[in-house]
Structure formats: C-alpha cells, structure tokens
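Thread: 3-ketoacyl-ACP reductase, structure

OP (GT): Posting the sequence first so everyone is looking at the same thing. Length is 275 residues per the record. Can we get the structure tokens written out before standup tomorrow? I want them in the notebook alongside the other entries.
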Amino acid sequence: MGKLDGKVAFITGVARGQGRSHAVALAEEGADIIGIDLCRQLPTVNYPMATPDDLAETVKLVEDTGRRIIATVADVRDFDALKSAVDDGVRELGRLDIVLANAGIMAHGLPPFDNSREAFRDSVDIMLTGVWNTLQVTVPHLISGERGGAIVITSSAAGLRAQPTDMGGGTDGYFAAKFGVVGLMKAYANALGKHNIRVNTVHPTGVATPMITNDFFPEFIEANPDIAEHMVNSLPVFAIEDVDVSRAVLFLVSDEGRYVTGITMPIDAGMTSLN
C-alpha cells in the first residue's frame, strides 16, 4: 500500500523540474494527478521554459507508475482556465485531497533591464497572484470533500533570507512573491484548520532543474557577485535534487505530517542558517 492510496493531487508547473518530480513521487505512493503547466516561453525569462513535449513526458512517467493523470496546458494567471482545469479534473477523478502550488519562474535579467517592469509583473503574477488563484479554485473542493486535505506552496530559501537585489524587476519580483506566499500560507492555515486542511510552505535552496541548469544562470551569477556570495549552502553542495524537495512534500501531504500546519519548511542545505 502507498501512503496516498485513493487520493488526488493538483499540481501547478507539472511539466518538468520540481513539479514533475512531485507528480511522480505522489503517484508512486498511490495518488492520481491533475496537473497544469504554461508550456510556452515568456519574453522576460532568459532560459528555455517547459514545452508541450515536457508535459507529455510527465504524463508518461506518471502513467508508468500505474496511476492516472489529467494534464492541461493552462496559465496560473488565468483564473478561469485554472478553475476549468481543476473542476474538470475533479469531475473525472472524483475528488481532491492535495494541492501543490508549485509553478514558478526566474525572470532575472542583466543591466540595463530593458523589460524590468514586465519581469516584475510576470514574477508576481505567476508566483504570488497565481498561488492565490490556485487556492481560490481548489479550496472549495477540499472543503466540500469533508475529508481534510493538504496544501503545499513552493516558496524558496530566498523567501526566508533574501540575497541582495540587483534592482532588476525579475529579481525583485521573485523576492516579493516568495516572501508574499508565506503570508498567504499563514492566513490560509489559520482559516482552514477547522476543516482539517493543512497548509505549509517549502523553501528549497537552488535545485538542479532547468531553472538554474541553463546557459543564462552562470552569466547572471558572474554579473552579480554580491548575490552569489549569499547563495552559499552550509552543506558542501551547490544545489539539491528535485527529489529532495519531493520527499519533504510527501511528508507534508501524507499522514506522517498530519499535525503539521502553518510552517515554513527549509530544504536548503543550511543556506538560511548562515548569516
């Protein structure tokens, strides 16, 4: 038996990276998956974003575990499309128990920051407003199911301990969003406790996914030594693996974490412990 037998999870940003890892990890423990991803490139993002082919690969990996998945191309900024994806998935799979608000971008740039305002807006719209949208369209299903549930929002080590800013819109938007979702988490944890719905945030250090394993990120780090100086882990590793975050998520959404709510969980190799 799996830890999540009979349960259904909704995951944003499911096409690759942490979202894909979470989908596979939860499916291996018995959960069916409803997933969405943008699957197109944004002009403010300087690395290749996920594609429909990436989403199809996630579908295959989940189905290889023997579980079901309903995967849709949708934008967390589009409330109506997000609601349709959730409602359709719940209608087909019959329930909703777990929500992983995972979708994220790094719209970091280099001077002269020609699209700084757009980068700030994209960052906040996807990683803060998009999380709020996700909560709005999923929480009614969790409450009406009367079985409790678990919500995990992906923040960042930079949502607990911000590095210096380069004053570009993408970096500032990232910090604002990753700190902002902690406030949302606390408020929803307090509001939903009476329904036995738990809400937490996870705060990874750098994760070896396409968000940082790309041609642009080393250039960004080289151009920003003050930021690079603060992106150091106390354990001797530059980046963790996506599965390390998935294991923490699995704890939070399973019965192993049944009394854990309202917390900020670092999976950060000690980054936030450093001064």
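GT: Both are above now. Quick notes for whoever picks this up: The CA atoms of residues 8 and 93 lie 7 Å apart. Residues 8-264 form a domain with the Rossmann fold fold (CATH 3.40.50.720).
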